[in-house]
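Q: Sequence in, structure out?
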Amino acid sequence: MSAPTAARELRSVLRRTGARTPAAAAAVLEGLRRVVPADCAAISRWDPAGRRHVTLAASYPAATTAFLDARMHADPLFGVVRAGRVPVRVRDLAPARRRGEIFESVIGPLGFRDGLTQCLFAADGRYVGMLNASTLDPGHPDDDVVALLDLLADDLGAALDPVPPPVRGGAPGEGGVDGMLVSPGGAVTPLSAAARPGLVADGSPLRTRIAAVLAGRPAPPGTLHVLRDGGVLAVRLSGGPGGVVVLHEDVAAPFGLTPRELQVLDALSRGRTNPEIARDLAVGVRTVATHVEHVLAKTGCPNRVAAARLATRLGLLAR
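A: Exactly. Output:
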């Protein structure tokens, strides 16, 4: 198979499966072997919360992979490559630039004669990760390989982007995923055009969860369901003390519950009585009783305790 044909097939794989998981990245790396002749290669995504790379698939030794993840981004030479936004081979560098930890920890000790690094970017310009390939042959990769990788750059970047491109105008649950990064100081950086910073504003139910992650507690597993502006958002948190990535997308209300019924279900999970719920929602006690009946009927829960457990499993935040 020729390299251009392999590149076309790889583009199809990237658009169909992405490279956000180790399994998907391994498949992409296998496809890249037919485009980029290399003795070792790696695909790494950038973790904006941890401020480090996370290698998803690699054929380098473990010590090299650890360097790629934890220290390569701090090497001044990497900053030059990232700023250029094109694949850079070792032999493209002026001799005076061939120094630093990249050469001292990887290229020199492993005997590589050439290779390249390609920094990858999302459509909106965010840095999302990198491709590294190293060879023992000083003649590879050649100019044709560099050109093919340059053509694949947009697809590689989109495949690594933790925020898949949103597709607007569909039914609930088909609107796409958006996201933002919350820093330890509370600053919110959108990671996509339709990110909703108000979702993590002071006073929002998510803010407490984010503060806990920033304080060092594990991020909540699975998906949270947040009632917002009459709709429901599926929210996932990841990160740690260095920052929290918040991904969200519009979804259908679980079990077909109305916004008011979701509020009642959330209140049940907090052990609120009907009179307390009535005061919180400024409605009558009999109205609350009716809502509770509807919640139990729609969810199939036999009683309030079971409904409360369901709300916890859903990660429901409706206040």
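The radius of gyration is 24 Å.
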